[in-house]
């Protein structure tokens, strides 16, 4: 930490800037046609930040509506469109491509000592597919919205809804291919592009978790694609696949949808776990405790994640026996998740902990993810789920995992690697302040929702019983704080591009290949191909292991 | 694999092609033999045999690194996961008794709280019976 | 060693151009082949979803599916399977010739494959036409004349038939276009050095399209030919 402050205050020496991936070319064309994984990562950063703001704005409006029990700010149809837009954008255009698209693209080749992804052009194509899908969604937003919820349940989506379902479906279909190609690229890159000496068990855990994520992307996303295609065929060509009037079964749609969409939550959270592994190790100056366990826990989550989708359908007419099986299997996911949380905690134990901004976010993650995960166990329990199904309890649960988990880790990761990505330091004081503000705002927003759900307030309604108002006002107040807290990093990070102190190659004194090249790295990452002769996280041996 | 066998091995492709043709004729022929539900089993068994031949020989998996084998098995295993867990729902739906057995039936509200004599007088005997019938219908719906 | 078809190791007489981010040709070759296999796994799951839908509905409506399946022309289906399996052979031979550096033969094999693929698509189109002609195409509120029982599930069967074979045909069209792009290079003798990577990757894709049909054919056309009573599952 003292090293950091020194670099912040020391006057920047006047030297000619060496060539790096940023100053190698300045034209718009050099960005839009780049095949450099680092530039593509920054392109994703721009796209994702935009969609995050859009999705957040939708949430802001309906949170304001929910301040009062009556319908005053928006009417019911607009409300439905707002929460649908919020869900679609946040899931398909922020959480799924977020950490893999920005940090994964930027870091994986550097972390494994490669010059680029295995398929750089495919990588660029992923970004374009992502943006084209996004343009469809923007069109839907401007043209009049869609009101099916992000889950597109049939027969409402295929037959009854008279909103822009087709355009949304096309957008998500295209974005799905972006996700598939990203996953494919990650898998091949990790298998085939590692530099000499970089064995599997020397890989940073961020790479492991992104590899596990890529497996889910590749195995799950195609099922979403075919599901959306079938709904589109039903809506567009009137081929009745799920149509109950013909004997079709809407629950079958739910099976196919959740076969992707449950593993998709692990697409969203696994990369976040990878970020946390890096942050915890770097700021406690300890090896990640139980490296192999954490690595295999990522794979275990990826595999088990495919066996539990039925817990979204406990009250949908699914067989009770299948429900029991899915309930038990869902419990199993808690094991690898808990392994990770315990191991991160043990990594911090007796470490030389410095509370820089990235670690503040990581600590936030640890607490909030634990709450989110444990309430997930409540929901996986068949009997309890019947009561809290489709209430705010579910909303609070997945926001604790997705916002308290993934967004926290994303912000922590962005701060941690910002010097590497841009060559500039962010202002530490402001960053710590906003990290705390995010934590406070988040809890004020979503903790009341646990209570609301437990008391029985259903989700997706814009009018509610007056008895729920106090908790809803708390939640809205928290959302305002959270909204402002998110604007801080966006502002000061952009500010730091021009005014930030120049970042050294290794501002955190961390280990890992990404800190052994300059900040920002040259176009092909390293001057010459590195040879790895050290283990991951070689800070010093972990105290717990020393004592055996 | 030396240069010597570069121009051999063509035979294997034609051998596999022949086997595929035999499989094609067999599957069409067998489909006309009434075997009940075994028709599906036989047809799928032949299809899998053909698929394995194509994957191993035409697609060269037989001589491919372990990673290719893993990729192929991952596809098959994940497909099996999806189909079997989906089927698990549909197969077991009918197992659940739609109505509780008679000795498990809970007493109705009216049995626990009988109408007072006054109420029966006020509404008349017939009305009381009708409402009980309605209740019974309601119970069975649940 | 001629009992199993082994690809001779790519004995490139001249090393092909290696892309900037790869260390050597072997790395590039391995990466591209693994990439194609990974893509094929995604395709398995893609078609798998549709097969799952078929499976569930066949389980729920065995008789309706049996009767509807018997409406399909089994001889056209068989002939098409024959065509597609043959095209798989030609593409496999093409890949082999690319390995051994017989570039022009690669070109002829690709042309043969495209020709067979076109025949398949033509027959498929004719089959679609007959369905429209007999008013059993459940698209766009067209008239649906079904004399038998259960018109609803029958409609679902034909919906799935059009959906699954349509997606399969779309994959074939993509494959034909991609293969056509390799023909000029083959006749320019560019595979004389055994640089078969491109042909090999497109070959894998074509074999996969063939594999899908190997399963679609019995599932859609055959399994209910002999069934007169509901299957006793």
From TrEMBL, chain A:
Subcellular localization: Cell membrane; Membrane
Catalytic activity: 4 Fe(II)-[cytochrome c] + O2 + 8 H(+)(in) = 4 Fe(III)-[cytochrome c] + 2 H2O + 4 H(+)(out)
Membrane topology classification: Multi-pass membrane protein
Pathways per UniProt: Energy metabolism; oxidative phosphorylation
Keywords: Cell membrane, Copper, Electron transport, Heme, Iron, Membrane, Metal-binding, Oxidoreductase, Respiratory chain, Translocase, Transmembrane, Transmembrane helix, Transport
SUPFAM superfamilies: Cytochrome c oxidase subunit I-like (SSF81442)
EC number of the protein: 7.1.1.9
Family matches, as InterPro entries: Cyt_c_oxase-like_su1_dom, Cyt_c_oxase-like_su1_sf, Cyt_C_Oxase_1, Cyt_c_Oxase_su1_BS, Cyt_c_oxidase_su1_bac
Claim: Electron transport is one of the keywords in the record: yes
Source superkingdom: Bacteria
One Pfam family per UniProt: COX1
MF (Gene Ontology): cytochrome-c oxidase activity; heme binding; metal ion binding; oxidoreductase activity
Chain ranges of the Cytochrome oxidase subunit I profile domain: 20-533
GO cellular component, one term: plasma membrane
GO aspect biological process, one term: respiratory electron transport chain
Transmembrane segments: 42-62, 82-112, 124-144, 164-190, 211-233, 257-281, 293-314, 320-339, 359-384, 396-418, 430-451, 471-495
Function: Cytochrome c oxidase is the component of the respiratory chain that catalyzes the reduction of oxygen to water. Subunits 1-3 form the functional core of the enzyme complex. CO I is the catalytic subunit of the enzyme. Electrons originating in cytochrome c are transferred via the copper A center of subunit 2 and heme A of subunit 1 to the bimetallic center formed by heme A3 and copper B.
Family membership noted in the UniProt record: Belongs to the heme-copper respiratory oxidase family.
Name of the protein this chain belongs to: Cytochrome c oxidase subunit 1
Lineage: Bacteria, Pseudomonadati, Planctomycetota, Planctomycetia, Pirellulales
UniProtKB/TrEMBL annotation, chain B:
InterPro entries for the chain: Caa3_sub_IV (IPR011743), Cyt_c_oxidase_su4_prok (IPR005171)
UniProt source species: Lacipirellula limnantheis
Protein name: Oxidase
UniProt keywords, alphabetically: Cell membrane, Membrane, Transmembrane, Transmembrane helix
Pfam hit, one: COX4_pro
Transmembrane residue ranges: 12-33, 40-61, 67-88
Membrane topology, record value: Multi-pass membrane protein
Keyword Membrane in annotation: yes
UniProt superkingdom: Bacteria
Gene Ontology CC annotation, any one: plasma membrane
Subcellular localization: Cell membrane
UniProtKB/TrEMBL annotation, chain C:
Subcellular location: Cell membrane; Membrane
Transmembrane segments: 34-57, 77-95, 107-126, 156-183, 204-223
One of the record's GO molecular function terms: cytochrome-c oxidase activity
Enzyme class: oxidoreductase
Domain Heme-copper oxidase subunit III family profile: 34-225
EC number: 1.9.3.1
Keywords noted in UniProt: Membrane, Oxidoreductase, Transmembrane, Transmembrane helix
Record's bilayer topology term: Multi-pass membrane protein
Any one Gene Ontology cellular component term annotated for this protein: plasma membrane
PANTHER family per record: CYTOCHROME C OXIDASE SUBUNIT III, NITRIC OXIDE REDUCTASE SUBUNIT E
Family: Belongs to the cytochrome c oxidase subunit 3 family.
The protein, known as: Cytochrome c oxidase subunit 3
Species in which this protein is naturally found: Lacipirellula limnantheis
Primary gene name: ctaE_1
